[in-house]
Amino acid sequence: MNSLDELTHELFTFFNGFSSWENSVIKTSDLTVSEAHAIEILGNHGQMKMKTLAQHLGVTTGTTTVTVDRLEKKEYATRESVKEDRRIHLITLTEKGQHAFAEHHQYHSNLTEQILSVLSSEENEQLVKILKKINAEAF
Amino acid sequence: MNSLDELTHELFTFFNGFSSWENSVIKTSDLTVSEAHAIEILGNHGQMKMKTLAQHLGVTTGTTTVTVDRLEKKEYATRESVKEDRRIHLITLTEKGQHAFAEHHQYHSNLTEQILSVLSSEENEQLVKILKKINAEAF
DNA sequence: TATGTATTGTTTGATGTTCAAAGTAATTTT
DNA sequence: AAAATTACTTTGAACATCAAACAATACATA
Lengths: 139, 139
Prior knowledge:
Chain A is mainly alpha-helical. Helix content of chain A is 71%, strand content 9%. Chain A has six helices and three strands; from the N terminus they run ααβααββαα. In chain A, a hairpin with a 7-residue loop joins strand 2 and strand 3. The two termini of chain A are 25 Å apart. At the A-B interface, helix 1, helix 5 and helix 6 of A face helix 1, helix 5 and helix 6 of B.
């Protein structure tokens, strides 16, 4: 196996591991995958309008409408229209939503710690540096 | 931001980038996401029975039945029962399926090259080493 | 200011993903 | 031979997603 294939293999193994870890974490909660993603984004960036949320999620506004409908029904978020432009609806996490976000973030930290535990502190530094580069330039 | 949060953030940014890249690649093909995953696994491991495929996919055999139904209809794979144990069905990629696998693998290599292009050869080696450790021990 | 255009968000109809539970067929165990 | 187990399929339900059509609001310009 050449060096390119080797890295390809490790990258996709890593991605798949990450992916199934995430799904299993979400399954332990009261949330569906799309609801969890929406809460993640709202938690990280604060209140935003439908369109912005849809862009962050990488889906259409139609899909986002359905997701936010459920978040509202389950009381994780609220919709409110803006006085200055009544087309716009701002989505905001409720207390319950913020709590779910904090909990989800804790799971993420746990996975990071699990990953760190198999690396030396030197490798830790290398990984952060490499990921920063990739995230900034590669996608 | 502390060091743990920093790595968490970079890890999940990386994961999300990877994820949306993969979805957009699959969208350019004739395949759905679950079909593409099945082809990926069959291409990497060769022919296998339904149950094994389901385990690799991380879904139930019921779900796998549906996926393989479609792969068969679209002529990417075939089902054949085994003489020695007629409960077992072996799934095999057709020519067309193998071609799709090769094409998908090429896309993966392209992404890896794209990632490599922003890294020094030293960082490349570090990344492979780190990923191997994580994949072997962390999940 | 009136009309046409653009934007924001919702609804609808279609396809796909997934699971759990129930069902079928074949094999193994007792 | 009966009971238990295994491999797979079917079914019904919830969820995810899109494209296209729609409604409400805002903006632009003639």
